[in-house]
């Protein structure tokens, strides 16, 4: 009986630590990111702070799409997707 309670408590501890870590990550991600509208950063920070579990889920589903993608990442994506195909099609012509 004691082993079952110890195992259950350990499982709940891992769940709580995991949820707390994701909550901290979301808060840091919101603080360090740029959003399309400045007010949205404050709104998401308040939502995640006051509604920890639900706020993180909403931020992951909705909020991350409201962020501005830095130009370096856009260029990297374009280079990795378009340029190899462009070089390959140019080589076929010769």
List the helices and strands and how they pair.
Layout (H helix, E strand, L loop, with lengths): L1 H31 L5 H13 L1 H10 L9 H23 L1
Question: How would you portray this structure in words?
Answer:
This protein has 94 residues and is an all-alpha fold. The chain has one domain. Helix content is 82%, strand content 0%. The protein is built from 4 helices and no strands. The protein has helices at 2-32, 38-50, 52-61, 71-93.
Could you list the spans in which at least 5 consecutive residues all have pLDDT below 50?
A: none
Shape: flat
Structural class: mainly alpha
Main sheet overview = none
Q: Supply the number of structural domains.
A: 1
The average pLDDT is 80
- Give the helix level as a range of percent: over 70%
Topology, number of strands = 0
For the terminal residues, how far apart are their CA atoms?
76 Å
Beta content: under 5%
Task: Note the run of SSEs as H and E.
Answer: HHHH
CA gyration radius, whole angstroms: 21 Å
How many DSSP H or I helices?
A: 4
């Amino acid at each position: 009986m004691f082993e079952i309670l110890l195992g259950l408590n350990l499982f709940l501890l891992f769940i709580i630590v995991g949820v707390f870590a994701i909550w901290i990550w979301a808060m840091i991600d919101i603080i360090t990111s740029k959003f399309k509208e400045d007010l949205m950063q404050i709104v998401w920070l308040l939502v995640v702070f006051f509604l920890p579990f639900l706020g993180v889920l909403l931020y992951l589903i909705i909020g991350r799409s409201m962020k501005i993608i830095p130009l370096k990442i856009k260029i990297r994506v374009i280079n990795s997707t378009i340029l190899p195909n462009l070089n390959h099609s140019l080589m076929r012509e010769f």
